[in-house]
Design a protein that fits this description.
Elements (H helix, E strand, L loop, with lengths): L1 E2 L2 E8 L5 E7 L2 E6 L3 H17 L12 H29 L9 H26 L2 H4 L1 H21 L7 H30 L5 H30 L3 H25 L7 H14 L5 H7 L26 H18 L15 H20 L26
Antiparallel strand pairs: 1-2, 2-3, 3-4
Length: about 400
Amino acid sequence: MENDSGVVLATERYGSAESWKYFARDGVVERRRDGSEGESRGNSIVGVFKSVFLPQGYPESVSDDYLQYQFWDTVQAFSSSLSGTLATQASLRGVGVGNQEATVAAATVTWLLRDGTGMLGRILFAWRKGTKLDSEAKKWRMFADVLNDMAMFMEILAPHFPACFTLIVCTAGVFKSIVGVAGGATRAALTVHQARRDNMADISAKDGSQETLVNLAGLLISLILIPLITDNPVLTLSLFFLFTMLHLFANYKAVRSVVMETFNEARLSIVLQQYLRDKRILSPLEANQREPVFLGVRNAVYLPGCICVCLGPKASVHDEIRVMCQAVWVSSTMSPPAHTEPTTQQQQSHWEMVHESHKLMDTIFNPFLKAAGWDTKRTLLDWDEWRVEWKSKSN
């Protein structure tokens, strides 16, 4: 390539920074910044912004859904920050700030009880639900944000019920501790999904910078709101509901924008059922759009609780996927649609259906496993601990 400056030998770019070009002219190699001076100045500003708030190598170093998710995550963080200001002011008023009759000891005891119950809630929740936070990250992320809004609403109402104030703030403290566990753990799971160059630490650090910037903006807005909402419960509740609606909408859009390429129970069930119907394999985008994001909302192809799956001690990832496909088929066979008569196949014994599922998998599993766009080197099927080792009969 040749222009007035000479022959372009190479173009150099480091990560998401501006680019430089090397020219050869009259036997001399020159290095120049790509673009005009005005463009270079603008690119320099954009480059600084990217280096501060975006992972190194963006957009190649992150998943395709990174920008959309981060945008909606920023919106929800901003609205949550404003709602948090309203809740904090109500909590401080409830413990006696500004009340000459309140004592420091009483306020301290209330605060300690709230923190103590929150710590217990954190431990119990991590014990009971920690194993589900990877495989159902979207659902628990949405659950955490809904629960956070409920906790802040309780804190805003607490000062209006002084007889139950301690009980209310302690309950809200438990809710917020659960939010901390579920929100932090699911954010880590999403970071693993977003990382494309084993750069999870960089993505997590830049996410923290983005959140800090948003919280700083929320702090400035809060300084304007506080004088307006002081001693005005109607305006406080009105603004809280406005911010909560924005918060929940942004969270829904955020989790809906995530396109995971690994199979969990819901996504594998959705893809397999579609394949059994018309031999078409859904792309990750199509399957993620059909995946439920609310706890308690089950897809029609979900497994009933009566099916238990155990794997051998040396089972591979493909073995996990195969046995899950069998379980999905058996589940759909055992559960005919409402108001329909069961077929002969559905009237078979459970062991006969298991045998049929093995024959079916022998036919369809290998073509199905070659699903385009899906990562079948690992799964989120949550079965790693279910292992059975058969003891051989001694002679």
